[in-house]
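Spend some time on the protein that follows and explain the fold to me:
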Amino acid sequence: MSVRLNNIAKQFGDTTVLRDLSLDVTKGELFTLLGPSGCGKTTAIRIVGGFILPTSGDVLIDGKNMTHIPPEKRNSAMVFQSYALFPHMTVFENIAYGLKVAKLPTAEINQKVERALTMIRMERRKDRYPSQLSGGQQQRVAFARSLVVEPHVLLLDEPLSNLDAIMRIEMRLEIKRLQREAGITTIYITHDQSEAMAISDRIGVMNEGTLVQVGRPEEIYLYPHNEFVARFIGATNLFRGKIQMDGSVPVLTTAEGVVIRGESKLTHRITPGQEHFASIRPEAIRVPSGEPEQPANLVEAVVTDREFQGSHLQLHLKLAKNHAVPLILNLPNTLDNLAIAAGQKLTLNLLPRAIHFFPCN
């Protein structure tokens, strides 16, 4: 089933939580609302589920206006952050609960629950109680309890926030697998950027009650629309300055005198003379060992600090020209790179093809 939010607004007293929120989630899609705490994403998903009534706007599920329809009649299911399992019920009984409420025949309930147990790979733990399960296992049970009632829409409200880092990675892969197998339209809520990037078909980035950008994970990461998205989705290097066109090539000059050249292929319209940002991700900066591939943006920088991140080395630098412009550089974990120390001067190549320009707000 598709989900559409038309101009949703929500106020609690004098506080506006959502402002003119409109989005479309297609059938079978795993769509993530991503944003910092307090941005309105949980309010939005609860409005979809019918737990909160919007101040204005409409909720449509499969083209039908469901704005004033109660949760139990929306054929949607929600997995909460706290799992909300019944402690006095076994795994089997927890999963079967919704089916029993719907008064399905016992044989059909047993069949559906056994199928769900196989899907979450917990057939041997069906007689255990929640207190006897790990956090990841409890999350699987909560997920299965929602899937077994065959909802048209599945709503997941920060379902992995109570798990440790390793378990979060394992469970996000499980959730992606289970959602694909079930083929259920899913709206996922998280403030974790890597989580959203890993599981989503598309991401909607929210800030202060407003949806600021929607796109595939790679689009959001490589082509942010504004400063908030660029800084919130991973680390980036931002240069702010006036932009001019050199033929078809955009050229940005910062107040510190740093000149950044891009490529003629642009993702949006450039307004010459206006202030823009030039964004380049830390992994897109090169340290040329010979003749630079694209020598347009060669700069000298001094290493101020280094962080060993396991899979890569993250260097913090400042441009040697004026020591006022900071940079972040990610390098592969090699013996040569690990020998780089604080105070060392490096020549960097800011590849024009990796630079994305967008206007200042």
Observations:
- Residues 50 and 71 are 5 Å apart (CA to CA).
